[in-house]
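Complex record, four chains
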Amino acid sequence: MAQEDRQFVDALARGLAILEALSRAQKPLSNGELARATSLAPSTVSRLTHTLSILGYVRLSQTSRTYELTPKNLTLGYPVLAGMSLLERARPRLKQLSEKTGETAALAIRDGIHVTFVEVIQGSNMVAVRLATGGRLPIAVSAAGIAILSALPDRERRTVAARVRADITRRGGNPDIFNRHLASACQQGIAIIRDAWRPGIGGIAVPVVGDGDVAALTVPVATGSITEAAMRGSLAAVLRETAEVLGPARAGEA
Amino acid sequence: MAQEDRQFVDALARGLAILEALSRAQKPLSNGELARATSLAPSTVSRLTHTLSILGYVRLSQTSRTYELTPKNLTLGYPVLAGMSLLERARPRLKQLSEKTGETAALAIRDGIHVTFVEVIQGSNMVAVRLATGGRLPIAVSAAGIAILSALPDRERRTVAARVRADITRRGGNPDIFNRHLASACQQGIAIIRDAWRPGIGGIAVPVVGDGDVAALTVPVATGSITEAAMRGSLAAVLRETAEVLGPARAGEA
DNA sequence: GAAAGTAATTCCGCACTGCGGAAAGATATG
DNA sequence: CATATCTTTCCGCAGTGCGGAATTACTTTC
């Protein structure tokens, strides 16, 4: 796109940009809105949505004139889940965790400078953070991201952390907060974040190693209903305990 | 592709074909294998995988030389799940269902002539059918598909059923079995399938209406360990009961 | 209910993208 | 080390996909 890469297929990137835009919006969008969101010409968007709808990735929503993602999009992610043995082992633990605390419990894995939630067990508490499989957050603002990062082998941690910092600055943020969070997580083996992504939302996470890569057990919390002390206390204890059962907390300690 | 549609963007379709091939294979594939699977020229595949890896949808697996899907693919499906209110209500019921029977319990929605599993609660039985969110089956061979179809408004059911039949014949199958299954489901309000998709695998499903569309509560079973009588008996009863709580079983009876 | 306004789609000429055969480069194999 | 196999890059050319403009389809307003 930006660079002169004779190997790069533009049309494909544009088509996927449409799907991403729909995913980000979390609601049906019209061709016009899509054109704006992707800075493509309306006629181009029209052709792409037309193609995607023939392929079955989008369809006109009832509120006609807008396109929405179809369930077919779920299938592309399916093998990612199906191949994870850690997920099988983690599932019952997440269930326990959620039952014991009433909170939502989730398993997250890294994907570049993001984390993706691969399993979510909904909590029973009245005020629960809404989350579903496939949810995605920048590493910098998620407890799970910090936790995963903290357990990576030194070398890898450094390169990923650098990319994260670069991303923060590029968006005009301050990397110091991230640095502090990471340092604290490395030292304590647990990551606690409050109000970093959105006000009122936070999380706590511990790393677990599985499938040759680092994942994180995490509990998202509404910061309005749970004090930092409560997080550091009982919640942290339960999480640590659960992680213990699942395996070593640092990469390479098989 | 086949037809002369001046509006159809080929490159996009080809790129998605790569992702689909990887999804179907459920394991990393080399460019050569992808070329064979998609009947594209190797050089074309190379360019597409190159593009997809820059975009972050595939990456080289450890077993270098082969590409695998990244978790980023999960995000495209995320909004599909996040927007379903039925899912929220169904989740605790699925949990109950699974605990009561020990079997895996799932919620499925229709997508063209396929069903996609949008939530799966793993059972505790020793022999469990492996299934994850995003799994996909043709309507014709899945209990969930038959159940959903059976609860559709007459008009819609007829058109979809016709497409399903067309698909069956196109693949050299016999639509009669499907017709019988559908008729039986329409009459009894419950669908039972055994060994239709793969030998040893079957399922039982009841329709539920939610989000303006029909979904299905389903329990996949290993036909080797559960007799048809058991399915028709206690399993069916529990399913019916659960569906009752979730709402009306036929579209339009709000 | 016509008219004006807005948004989506289709048309179409042209630039240049992406295609695919062939060559070059990498890796595995005996 | 030679050979076979597979992958990536190169490159000329066909024809795809681009985007401005025209057309068509909706929606809104009075």
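Note: Chain B touches chain A through 62 residues (CB under 8 Å).
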